[in-house]
Design goal:
Layout: H1 12-33, H2 42-53, H3 61-84, H4 90-117, H5 125-148, H6 159-167, H7 179-203, H8 206-224
Helix pairs in contact: 1-5, 1-7, 1-8, 2-3, 3-5, 4-5, 4-8, 6-7
Length: 235
Amino acid sequence: MAPSSPPVAAPLPWLLMLLSVTTGLVDATSVLGLDKVFTANMTGNIVFLGFAAAGTPGFDVAPYLTAICAFLIGALVAGRTGKAHAGLPLRRWLLSAAAIEAGLLWLAALVAWLRQGGEAASHSAGFYGIILLTALAMGFRNATIRQLKVPDLTTTVLTLTLTGLAADSRLAGGADTNWIRRIGSVVAIFIGAAIGAALVTHSGLAAPLLLAGALGLAGTAACALHPAAATPAAA
């Protein structure tokens, strides 16, 4: 069976905050550099796909379908990876997932760098290659985080986070559950998007992808050193 509710290692929420920063980096790369395609958040792609299906100028079906299909494949592989690590130390699962994600992002960075060198045309093979690789990485990431089940830290989607922040606030008669974590998640993605936008503008698409992969891998390695990460992933 797939890992369902592994114990939350003390540094795990901090790792997911860091991964939220990388989400901003990846979406800045795809939205600003790949004609408004999201590769970390699929809601926007579904909306844009609807625009494209209606024949709205500036929106093409193929990029959004590529991102959605690649995201689903990445999530499927992550599900299988989770099953394969059931009962094994949590750190082994986390490190395997981080290595896969970083490898995909760095390969996308290589494609972006080669594309800058010559094949910079929109909707070229390099264009679709970056979409494919980053969406695979983010689909894998989302499915892995989903299995970890850390409350209010999805690392990619903020709609429910913002809803919970308002609905559970004291103004709404709630107890402000996890408000620090929720605000932290919003700030992390905001910071990642700002840094990503600056890097895309001044350095091209490869730089934010390289940084995203490095941050995720380094943060996971640091998290894996914590004693709690030696506990088995729950089956």
